[in-house]
Specification:
2 copies of one chain form a homodimer. Helices cover 59% and strands 0% of the residues of chain A. The first copy, chain A, is mainly alpha-helical. The interface between A and B is large, with 59 and 59 residues. Chain A binds a DNA duplex through loops. Chains A, B: Keywords: DNA-binding, Repressor, Transcription, Transcription regulation. Chains A, B: It holds the Pfam family TetR_C_1. Chains A, B: This is TetR/AcrR family transcriptional regulator C-terminal domain-containing protein. Chains A, B: It comes from Microtetraspora glauca.
Chain lengths: 216, 216
Amino acid sequence: MSTLNRARIVAAAVDLIEREGADAISMRRIAAELGVGVMSLYNHVPNKSALLDGVAEAVLSEIEFTDDPSAHWTDRVRIQARAFRQIAHHYPRSTMVVVSRQLRSPAGMLPAERALATLRDAGFEGGEAVRMLRMFIAYIVGSLLREVGVTPTFAPVRPDAPVAEADPALFPELSARAQELGACDHEAEFEFGLELLVQAMAVRLGERGLSGHETA
Amino acid sequence: MSTLNRARIVAAAVDLIEREGADAISMRRIAAELGVGVMSLYNHVPNKSALLDGVAEAVLSEIEFTDDPSAHWTDRVRIQARAFRQIAHHYPRSTMVVVSRQLRSPAGMLPAERALATLRDAGFEGGEAVRMLRMFIAYIVGSLLREVGVTPTFAPVRPDAPVAEADPALFPELSARAQELGACDHEAEFEFGLELLVQAMAVRLGERGLSGHETA
DNA sequence: CCCGTCTACGTACACCGTACGTACGTCACC
DNA sequence: GGTGACGTACGTACGGTGTACGTAGACGGG
């Protein structure tokens, strides 16, 4: 009812993606959602790609980064990683567009800025801090894509169909592990890798055993 | 010229993707590439989605998995990870479709089967082996997506434009690290994370320091 | 009053995936 | 040698897509 603007369009796009999936999104659908003609959107958004950038930006800027510089760096890393994973919970179907559009805007840069600050405080100097950052991003992106179903979990195809899925002769390991492969507790999986990475980083700093948490 | 079949269609699709990118692919373009009518494709492929599965399968089945069960498990892990990364080199623009289609076919299962076998030989029992596998896949997928440009490297936008990109006041860390962020040697980055993960796994096994390679 | 600017909108074009109907070449069987 | 069934290739058509372009109305300043 109120006047059209970029924020309303982006919000409608996010809603639509979450309701019907990223594939279902189209300029026509969004316009219909807003009760507006298709071409009216182009008064506020140059094209669909820019709109998706807006979606990524909107989702990304909702991440709560509460960084406490006085905390131990391992906990700061954990908190930042978990904050990023929130998007996979709040906006699961938007996750793919968030991670696949590289933003130059503040919202897109802030997570990296925070992470680099933490890594510097932890004691990593320039080159190594950047490598750590990139490794962490790779792990988080890969984890989120699994969590939202883009990437496989290797769960035997149907949740039903007792256990047997793959031919045990061809795939003995997969068959033997069908039990564990069948369930995928995304939070537990994420925490497992996170802990492993944090410990690996601590080792790299020569601080073995100081990470502050025992692993499950 | 020879008769149409699924393999020829898939091959044409892979070629087209590599030449013009995954977005440029369409049934009409593929048909034109093969010099046939669009609908002729549907005699051999039920729909576009199945065709993309075929693309993923074709690319995946070209990975060379030369697993030497007598080698140290750390080297086996390294070799398998690198083998997987080959696809990002040989078929960069197909990488996204490879990682985003979950295949139930042998070609799709084999890498996981091999990895689980290696992890078992290394001494990881059921549940932990599966978690290690998933963590490794997450890291590799995330790394490949960065390598093929889906995900950001945080390189200051243009390779030119000396160094300054972000506002140093807002993003002091990013600005200070602009040098290191500007360059992204994908092989070195991949190896860095790989080594970190392998060492973390070794620590988990209580085998500290036996990983067999020093890191750069 | 008039004119420039901005917003909303309709139409149109090129392209997409694919359902459907059809024509034709090949082979089995009588 | 028919002759029918079948599989492959193909054309047409429908409903969808992103968006270029032209138009019409609202609004504010001279």
